[in-house]
Amino acid sequence: MAGSDSKRLVESELDLARERLAFYEQFDEIIRQNIASSSALLKEASTRHEADFVAERSQHRALLADILDDLTALQSQSERLARRVTDALDNLEGGVAHPAERVAPEASGLGLTAEAPPEAAAVVNAATRATRKSAQRGAETATPKPATPEIPSPAATAAATDFSNPTTTTLLVHGVPRASAALGLKSYIEKLDFVSTVEPREFAAGLLRLHIDGARPFALGDLSGWSLADRVKLRSASNDLLELDLTPA
């Protein structure tokens, strides 16, 4: 009897061990299936994310290309509008402006930087270095008089001017009504014997700012020959700054 009971106990333990082994094998298979499924899901998510990224990048590229095309078209239209406004200003000023102010059909030669005025917006460019003044000044037409002494030539006058100690004067003129008046003033100053260069720095809301390099500081009396000299009023003056007001006509 004891041997039979021992045999049944061993068989019972073996059956229990077989059940546990079967359970662990099933659980291991489930884990393997989960790992395989997770790997497939990760690969699918990575592929979908890359596809979405490529599509989004293509959309952004197309949007930026459209913006660039619009900007290019807007720039072309602005240039055409600027030329039309410039031509209109030239036609308008042609009948009323003083000859000294009618110095150029376009204000790009002035190299001004404008912000607000509609007239200036059509004629301004980035500030550039002003060109050296012409070696000869245009002679003004006048009726010769026997008693008038001989006027030295511009070349001889320029040769007599001492540029060994150059100075720079900032000229501020308030109330400049038109770009043609600013051009006329710049052209007049460039023709002065002691001036070497005139560099425009600003023309906005009627304010004209010029940097004048010459053999001596620029003074109010140097504007006596300008066509609008009778409208000039002194606001302040120093060695390197001359600030003026241009009164309305």
- Seen as an oligomer or otherwise, the chain set is single chain
- How big a fraction of the residues is strand? 15-25%
Shape: rod-shaped
Count of domains: 2
Query: Helix tally?
Result: 4
Rg from Cα = 43 Å
The tally of strands reads: 5
Structural class: alpha+beta
The description of the largest β-sheet is: 5 strands, mixed
How many angstroms separate the termini?
A: 140 Å
Mean of all residue-level pLDDT scores: 77
Unreliable spans are 96-109, 112-159
Element order: H for helix, E for strand: HHHEHEEEE
Strand order of the largest sheet: 2-3-1-5-4
Helical fraction: 40-55%
Throw out a few tags for this protein.
2 domains; five-stranded mixed beta sheet; 15% strand; 4 helices; alpha+beta; 249 residues
